[in-house]
Amino acid sequence: MGLPTSKGRNLLFYHYQLDLRKRLFLDEFGLFLGRRRKRFVVRRKGKVAEEVPADDVEAIVLMSKGVAVSEDAVRLAIDRRVQIVHAYHSGWPYAFTIPTFLSGSVETRRQQFLAYSDERGVELAKAFVIGKLTNQSNLLKLLSKSRQRTQPRLANELYGHAVGVDHVADRLGEIRGFEVDAVRLDIMNLEAGAARFYWSGIARVLPSELGFRGRDPGGTDPFNVLLNYGYGILYGEVWKAVYYAGLDPFAGFLHADRPGKPSLVLDLIEEFRQQVVDRSIVSLIARRRLGDEGIFEEGLPEGEKPILSKAVRHLVAEAIVKRLGDEVAFEGKKLALSSIILRQARKVARYLRGTIRAYTPFVQRW
Amino acid sequence: MGLPTSKGRNLLFYHYQLDLRKRLFLDEFGLFLGRRRKRFVVRRKGKVAEEVPADDVEAIVLMSKGVAVSEDAVRLAIDRRVQIVHAYHSGWPYAFTIPTFLSGSVETRRQQFLAYSDERGVELAKAFVIGKLTNQSNLLKLLSKSRQRTQPRLANELYGHAVGVDHVADRLGEIRGFEVDAVRLDIMNLEAGAARFYWSGIARVLPSELGFRGRDPGGTDPFNVLLNYGYGILYGEVWKAVYYAGLDPFAGFLHADRPGKPSLVLDLIEEFRQQVVDRSIVSLIARRRLGDEGIFEEGLPEGEKPILSKAVRHLVAEAIVKRLGDEVAFEGKKLALSSIILRQARKVARYLRGTIRAYTPFVQRW
User: Fold this and answer.
1) Where are the domains of chain A?
2) Model confidence pLDDT, tens digit, residues A81-137
3) Whether A68 and B32 lie within 8 Å, measured CB to CB
4) Side-chain-facing half-sphere of B263: CA atoms under 13 Å
5) Residue B71: its chain A contacts at CB < 8 A?
6) Which residues from chain B sit within 8 angstroms of residue A262, using beta carbons?
7) ipTM of the complex
8) Mutation test of the interface with chain A: which of B31, B60, B106, choosing the one with the most A Cβ atoms within 10 A?
9) Fold of the domain spanning B6-97
C-alpha cells in the first residue's frame, strides 16, 4: 500500500481550482490571511506566499489553530460573498462567519416551516433518502462494473448489494403520510436497512487491513475518520447552498428530531455523500494513494482520538474539491457537482414556495 | 464645549466591565487577538497588552481593518459562547461569527413564522412600538424634570412634547387587526408622528451648534452619526439576544417589508434605543464630554462620509456599555439593561410558543 505522496507533505497551504473559483484551505500553523486591495494575501512568517483575487475565491476554510485572519480579509470576503468556514482538524465546521443580510426571501423560510406540517415535508424527506439510496446503489454498481473482468465474483457480490439497496428504495417510494413526523421512523428504518447492504458492499472493496466494520461517525478506524473529514468539507458546501438559498439551516424534515442541529443541511447532504465523498475516498484507496500506514498523525497522547496526518488531509481535501469540480449530467445539463449542490438547495426553496411541483433529488448514473 | 478627554485618546483598545462580563472592543490598527489556554490575549506589536479569562468576556467587537484574530481565539470564543461581531467604523455590524449549533428549539421559529399570519404578529408589532413611544415620552419627561429649576420654560416645552408622544401611544393601543400586514402602515404612520414630537424635543436640549434637524440615519451631522454608532453597539446586543433565544433574526413583524434585513432585530431594538443609546449620548453632550469640535476624524478626503474620531468612538462605546450594565427596575426586578435585552428576546420566544399570554415591552420609568 502506498504512502501519501511527498508532494502533499510539503504543502504549506493549498487551494484548488474549481469552476474558475478556488477554495483556500488554511491548514498549517503560522499562516496569516490578509488583504491587498481586492486580493487575498496568504503570508508565512511575514512573506507573501500567495495572492488571489477575491473574485476567484469561493470559500476560505480555516482548519488550523495556528492560523490568523485580518479583519480586512474578513470584510473583503463578506463584500464578495466568499464563505468563511471555521473547521476542526477532523474537517467538521464548528462556526461560520456570516453577513448580517440575508439572501433569498423570508417567504421561503415561512413556507419551510409550514411544510413541516404538511405533505411537502414528507415528499422532501422521501426525496432526500431516495436520492441517497439510488446513489448508494449506483456507486455499488459502478464498483461492480469496474471489477467485472478482474474480480468477477466480487463484481457479482457488489451488484447483489446494489439490488438489495434498490429493493429498499422501492419500498421508500410507497410511503405515504400527511406530515413528516408520521413517517420519519418508517423512512429511517428503511434507510438503516439500505445502509447495511451499502456499507457491507463498500467494505468488500476495501483492504481488510483498514478494519472497516461499517459506518460509524465515532469510529476510530481509518476509513470512518477519512469519511468524517470528507463529509466535513461537503457539509460546508451544503451549508452555504442552504444559507444562500434563503433556507433556515436548522429547520429540516428528516433530521428534525435533533435539537440544535442544522437539520436541513443534514437532510440535503444525504444525496451528495456517496458521489462526492464515498466515491473519492474509495478511489484514493483503490489507486493506492492512501494506505493503512501514515494515515494518522503519530505521537498523539494515549487515548486521544486519531487525527489524519497532514499529508492525508491535503490529499483528501484535494480529491474532494477536485470531485466537486467534476461535471456530471443531471436533468439534461452537464454541471459541476458544486453547482448542482447550489441548484438543489434553490430547488428545495422553489418547491417550498410552490414554483415547482416536485423536488427531484440529485442522482448520478453509473 | 469640552473636547473628548485625552484619556480616551490614548487607549489602544478597551474593555468595559459589565455584569462581571466584559466587551472587548478591538478598534485600532495593529492589534492582534490571540489565545493562551482559556484566556484571550490582546497583543500589540507582539507584546501582550492584556489577558482576559474567556469566561469574563461577553463579546468581542472587531471594529478596525488593521485588527487580526487567531483561529485559536475564534475557537475559544465559540466554545465559551462569546459573541464575535465584525463591525464597520460607523459601529454597524456587517457580520457575525456564529456556531453551527443553535440554541433554543426549532418550534420557536416555527411559531414565529405562523405568528406572522395571525394576531400574535399584530400584538408584537404594537408592543415593540408602544415600548418605544413610552420610552421616548419617559426620556423627554426625565429631561424635563432635570431642567425644571434651571430652565423652567424649556422643561415645560419638553413635557409638552412628551404628552404629544403619549397621545400617539394611546392611539396605537387602539389598533386591531388579524395579521400584521393589515396594520403595519397604521402603526408606522403613528410611529412617524411620535418621532416628530420626540426628536424635536431632543433637539431642544442639544446645543444648536450641532445642527441637529431631526433623526436621519444617513445624516452627516454629529448627533445623527453619534446615534448610528451607539445603535450599532446596541444592535449587536439585540442580535445576540434574538439568536440565542432561538428566534430567526430575519423574520420580524413590523420591519418585515425590508427583504434581506434582520427585521426581528430591528423590531426588538425599538424599545431599547431611547434608554440605552439616546439617553447616553444626550447625557455625554449635556455633561460637555462631547462638544461640536473634535467629534469627527480630520483630514478625510473631500466628499467622504464623516467618521467619529477615535477618542469619541471610545467615549461613546464606554458610555453605552456602562449604560448596559445599569440596573433598572422592570417587572418587579432590578436587572442590568443587558440582561433585560436577553430576557425580552426570550419573552418574545415564550409568547410565540404560547408559554405566556402577552408580550410586555421594556419600559423604564422616569
Assistant:
1) 6-97, 106-353
2) 899 999 998 888 999 998 888 766 788 988 999 999 999 999 999 999 999 999 999
3) yes
4) 20
5) 62, 64-69, 86
6) 100-102
7) 0.83
8) B106
9) Ribosomal Protein L15; Chain: K; domain 2 (3.100.10)
